[in-house]
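Quick one:
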Amino acid sequence: MMTVKIRPYQTSDLTAVLDSWEISTRMAHSFMTDEFIAKERINTAEIYIPNTDIWVAEIDNEVKGFIALMGNEVGAIFLHPKFHGQGIGKKLMDKAQQLHNELQVEVFKVNTIGRNFYKKYGFTLLEEKLHQPTGQMLQRLIYSTTKK
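Output:
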């Protein structure tokens, strides 16, 4: 039986977080070039991580995924593909939802893995727009615990 713990990010988690991010990014975003991913890996380490509230998924004492929040915006949620479909992504999102009644996220329209996850969790579409750097469509989604 695997043990899953959701805990705050520590600087010693950096390599594991970046590895989870890169493996998942390559799987869900086949349109991204190696050059774009290499640049984003640096940006993730130097810009995004220091400026977000990060919670990691520790599976059997190893970090295999994370969620990064900028206020109520889900900046990123990535989980090593080996652990997809086991409720771990939901645990990460549950942590974000405990912290914020309303959540928003942007997901590439072609990322069916991410879109299916958000839909199953209860997110609904707010808007679609073009992501200039990749030429891909982005969907902005919203999740709210307060009923309209």
